[in-house]
Write a structure and sequence with these properties.
With 301 residues, the chain is α/β, with parallel strands linked by helices. Helix content is 33%, strand content 21%. The protein contains 9 helices and 9 strands. Helix 6 runs antiparallel to helix 8.
Amino acid sequence: MKNQYKSGFVTLIGRPNVGKSTLMNHLIGQKIAITSEKPQTTRNRIQTVYTDEKRGQIIFLDTPGIHKAKNKLGEYMVNVAERTLKEVDVILWLVEPTTYIGAGEQHIAEILRQVKTPVILVINKIDTVKKEEILKFIDAYKDICKFAAIIPVSALKKINTDSVIDEIFKYLPEGPQYYDEDTVTDQPMRQIAAEMIREKALRLLSDEIPHGIAVVIEKMTERKNGMFDIEATIVCERDSHKGIIIGKGGAMLKKIGTQARIEIENLMDARVNLQIWVKVRKEWRDSELYMKNYGYDMKEK
């Protein structure tokens, strides 16, 4: 008997910085979600697609980390993450390898106990601990929630990640192929370009600045020879931040631009002429109007 084709939606949740974007990029085999060592890297739901010709198609939603919101942008991010749980077929909850379950994890467990969706617990970063300790971490978590499965992995070192795909397929319903085989994301190219610029800024700038930046693509046009012209603006909250982002003699902005352009070119498979400006919008993270303009719409359901 022929295997039935399955398809469905899977969300990755977890506290900021547990490796959700790294895992998703690895599972679909291409970099779409931005990653950095800083929390709050992912702000919107990023939808990516994994296609297996025989088994089916998994649409991943990488959501912002669930955390206690400090401003309107924080509220927006938490609402996006929590709303997603009710819309999907499987939930992947990523945690770090520890026997201490802190307030952040308890908060997520509390939310998960209220949903009927199957939850797969993924204990990430097992490359950072001794093999014999892994059972202790599984033991610490196993009763906090009703799990469909518990899988220890290392997203970074690609250890045991195939088991995650195998386990997801067990819980997906039979369904159609939503996207063709070549699709890896439904994100518009402008949004991906903006995220790539934001990732470089996150990685290159000092800690306190990146949370307060947004990136807007003002213009994206293709020339006859296939080259793209992209004009982008980095929005920050303070004049002093603007100076740091631009850097001495424009050096920092040039560095951000060069690194972002290389990634955008690789992704678009085309040459790119990227120009970036910096402007100040004080307290934009608490302004619904500015947030909407920068792609974070509080009213979007």
